[in-house]
Amino acid sequence: MRQRPLRIGLAGLGSIGQQVARQLDAGIDGLELVAVAASDREKARQNLAGFRALPRIGTLADLSDTDVVVEMLPARAFADIARPTLERGATLVVASAGALLSHMDLVDVARRTGGRIIVPSGAILGLDAVRAACEAPVASITIETRKSPASLAGAPYLAQQGIDVHALRAPTTIFSGTAEEAALAFPANTNVAAALALAGLGPRKTEIRVIADPAVDRNIHTITVESAVARFTCHIDIVPNPENPRSGQLTSRSIIACLRDMVSPVRIGT
Ligand SMILES: NC(=O)C1=CN([C@@H]2O[C@H](COP(=O)(O)OP(=O)(O)OC[C@H]3O[C@@H](n4cnc5c(N)ncnc54)[C@H](OP(=O)(O)O)[C@@H]3O)[C@@H](O)[C@H]2O)C=CC1
Ligand SMILES: O=C([O-])CC(=O)C(=O)O
Fold first, then answer.
1. pLDDT tens digits, residue range 118-176?
2. Residue 157 CA to ligand 1 centre (angstroms)
3. Best mutation site among 125, 251, 254, 255 for ligand 1, i.e. most ligand atoms within 8 A of its Cβ?
4. 248 Cβ inside 6 Å of ligand 2
5. Where does NAD(+) bind (predicted)?
6. Can you say whether the dihedral through the CA atoms of 152, 154, 155, 159 is positive or negative?
7. Is 166 a catalytic site residue?
């Protein structure tokens, strides 16, 4: 049994980071929120006003004394915290799963230092069954992601292809490809495909279709698995975060559930 709580640091205090901070401050036995890293410290101070126990507010470097760092940054900043955290042998919980695909050398770093990379389910479901299915031969794993124009706006692929999602009047497939390609094309919108790929067949053998649908107000994901031991389809409709509609409201809860697992004597699911 642990003698002291697990010291948690949060990298990023955006739409997901704020929710995770609030839930940790509400109190979870065995977990202590000790530090947060934010790009705008004054804004962070305002966002944490009223907390029962105010964590330290600083930069990514200020998370270096924590046991677990929860990465909730834009994809472009992922490596700035992932690498130092793993180099010092700590645990990294990853929200930007798509960014991890371009930094798989970090697995070797973790192996060398004793660090750990943990990718929570985030906004996707069924990773338990996907992992189990992959213990037997698997024919295919695919994901369809359907989002409103507001949840897709700003993706580099849209600018590259000259696609104005706000002008669409009907559901339109705007991208088909592998999870690896999607992570570069839609770094803030296809973390679900990256997590699915890491759980299953890998980023080059996991196919994703992205549909822009002006009629939906949720982030909708459907995964389909064909394997020797089971065939299944899982579907989820997630309420977007008002502050950042690219991210849904399930992910912060998934991270909290993942952190609870680290200190719980009982673990449920794969
Ligand atoms: N795994 C999954 O299923 C899901 C993953 N995600 C991913 O999770 C990540 C976080 O999402 P979300 O919270 O919605 O994103 P936000 O953009 O709302 O928040 C990111 C925060 O990080 C801050 N930031 C940027 N650079 C730094 C830095 N160097 N040091 C400290 N803070 C920094 C940003 O500040 P500023 O705005 O001032 O730059 C912003 O406040 C994203 O990569 C997103 O794509 C999202 C949904 C589901
Ligand atoms: O649905 C969500 O909350 C976010 C999402 O698709 C992703 O990041 O892959």
1. 999 999 999 999 999 999 999 999 999 999 999 999 999 999 999 999 999 999 999 99
2. 19
3. 251
4. yes
5. 123, 191
6. positive
7. no
Closest ligand 2 atom, CA of 122? 3
Catalogue all structural domains in the chain, each as residue range(s) with its CATH number.
6-123+250-262 (3.40.50.720), 127-241 (3.30.360.10)
Going from the C-alpha of 239 to that of each of 36, 113, 120, the distances in angstroms are 25, 38, 18
**Burial label, 46 (beta-carbon count in 10 A; 0-12, 13-18, 19+):** exposed
Q: Map residue 7 onto helix, strand or coil.
A: strand
The bound ligand whose nearest atom lies closest to the alpha carbon of 151 is 2
Q: Which ligand is nearest to the CA of 97?
A: 1
Give the CB-side neighbour count of residue 48, counting CA atoms within 13 A: 28
